[in-house]
Amino acid sequence: MRPDLCLENAGRRYGLRGPWVLRGVDLTVAPGRLVRVEGANGTGKSTLLRLLAGIDAPSEGRITGRPRTAYVPERFPPALPFTAVGYLTHLGTVHGLPRAAAARVAAEWLERLGAAAYAGTSMARLSKGSSQKVAVAQALLAEPELLVLDEAWTGLDSDARAELERAVAERTAAGGSVVFVDHDPLRLAGLPDATYTVRDGSLVERAVPGPPPSGPQVTVEVQGPPDGRLPDDVRRTVTSAEETAPGSHRLTVPAPHSDVLLRALLTARPPWHVVSVARQADAPGSRR
Ligand SMILES: Nc1ncnc2c1ncn2[C@@H]1O[C@H](COP(=O)(O)OP(=O)(O)OP(=O)(O)O)[C@@H](O)[C@H]1O
């Protein structure tokens, strides 16, 4: 089993005498966890995410248990001498995929994110939104154990935003961890296992739960073996699960995650029988 990623007494400052941006930070990210990081502008959220992503090192303290990690930075360098699909294929091979498989996965991600039409466009000529889709695709194509998302939804159209939410659900359902920063307080509302606020160089875990899940929910009635325990990837995807009779469960999931849940149920061993799928009305005050 993969170990937890741990920051122990981690501090970061820029320059030998620069002020400490982060100091004495302890944080554990276990496999399968979804973690939100928030805080006012300039408090050190991106600094923390760069440490977690492994592209920067703490000035003091240490990090242990590094998993296979992918990162969507706040600013993605678009002016690279590649086409979109060429760049993603190249990265796929860097992650160890054979070239043909890398090209296939690259094309699949561009398709999922609605950027297939730009596959052959040079990176330097991509719009900001398409460039952001490439930034997201490069992180997802290697199915990382830890996905670090720094404002990754910014600049995406609504279909791509929903697709990225689905991809987050897929990663956590598969036992991967996801750490994200997003300016929208309702992003993945109700789903994070933990939310931390960066304040005065420290990390404070938010004790109260975040806002309830926004947007439409889907209720899935399933039947499994009488003594059956819900598969791990199913439990990690749902917002609630209730056993209504021996072997019968009512599961609730945000609508964008319902196909991830259904796939997990249908591929479970032994298989689970999906009795019904019903979409509930939007929660009051929710938005897409
Ligand atoms: N490479 C760097 N060199 C020097 N100072 C830096 C560097 N990166 C960040 N800082 C400083 O560290 C502090 C925290 O920056 P950081 O980008 O981590 O904050 P943030 O919370 O992500 O901000 P924002 O919400 O504006 O994205 C800021 O004062 C910033 O100026």
From TrEMBL:
Keywords associated with the record: ATP-binding, Nucleotide-binding, Transport
Protein name as it appears in the record: Heme ABC exporter, ATP-binding protein CcmA
GO molecular function per UniProt: ATP binding; ATP hydrolysis activity
Organism name: Streptomyces azureus
Residue ranges occupied by any ABC transporter domain in the UniProt entry: 5-225
Region feature (Disordered): 207-231
PANTHER family for this protein: ABC TRANSPORTER ATP-BINDING PROTEIN ALBC-RELATED
Gene3D superfamilies registered for this protein in UniProt: P-loop containing nucleotide triphosphate hydrolases
SUPFAM superfamilies: P-loop containing nucleoside triphosphate hydrolases
